[in-house]
Design a protein that fits this description.
Length: 243
């Protein structure tokens, strides 16, 4: 059965979240007079990412709300008891710097153009629709996707199979006719494979050497390799080097 649609992760797949987050937080900490509080700017940025990952895991497990994980990121990072309003205000000031650094990866528009005629497209993200809908509009690609589904509204997060199946249902296609492309080998790669979709892991940062990829899943280093995996007739013709 051929692949008829591609469902996409957003952060660190289409959108360069890691760079935007680090540059945004660097600018925010400088504006707040906090850049040297944690020893070095690099340590501050690493700590913010560690806390973000921890709080996202709590949200994915249903232990907190989307807004709650944001507030707790701020409280843990600052090491202070803050009201919801205080935490929200601090996070909103960070968001201003973060959004100034938003950008797509350079391989995104070429592959969306190449697959526009041959495949349908949707988004499945572990974020909220409010956040990702606006992000995709600002980045100029919102209209490329038939459906945009997010964990905060679905009530279920990747890697739960129900999240991937909801995306297939939105496209009215069986999982075997849908590919999922994401940057996380377990949450995206294993989760989509377990749900019956064609699993494609975009390994932008070279983690391949430390991760054993199960048979039947694909790993690519750039989205230019995706059309070959999908069997699309486009100008991208190189077979994936990872299989």
């Amino acid at each position: 059965m051929s692949i008829r649609a591609v469902v996409w992760d957003v952060d660190d797949t289409l959108f360069d979240y890691t760079t935007a987050d680090r540059e945004g937080m660097r600018g925010h900490l400088a504006a707040e007079g906090l850049l040297e509080r944690y020893g070095t700017p690099e340590r501050a940025l690493d700590l913010w990412r560690e806390i973000t990952d921890q709080q996202w895991a709590r949200f994915a497990d249903g232990e907190t709300t989307f807004e709650g994980q944001r507030r707790d990121r701020v409280r843990v990072f600052l090491g202070r008891a803050l009201t919801d309003a205080e935490a929200d205000a601090w996070f909103e000031r960070y968001i201003t710097h973060y959004e100034a650094a938003w950008a797509l990866f350079p391989d995104v528009l070429p592959v969306l153009d190449a697959l526009a005629a041959s495949h349908r497209h949707a988004v499945l993200s572990n974020s909220s629709l409010h956040v990702q809908d606006r992000k995709l509009r600002v980045l100029g690609v919102h209209d490329r996707f038939e459906a945009i589904l997010c964990a905060a509204e679905l009530g279920v997060s990747k890697p739960d199979a129900a999240a991937f199946l909801a995306a297939c249902e939105a496209l009215a296609l069986p999982p075997r006719e849908v590919a999922y492309v994401g940057d996380h080998p377990e949450i995206d790669g294993q989760g989509s494979a377990d749900a019956g979709l064609l699993s494609v892991w975009i390994d932008r940062y070279g983690a391949a050497a430390t991760i054993q990829l199960p048979s039947g899943r694909h790993r690519i280093a750039t989205l230019a390799e995706l059309p070959a995996i999908l069997g699309a007739d486009t100008r991208f013709g190189a077979q994936s080097t990872f299989g």
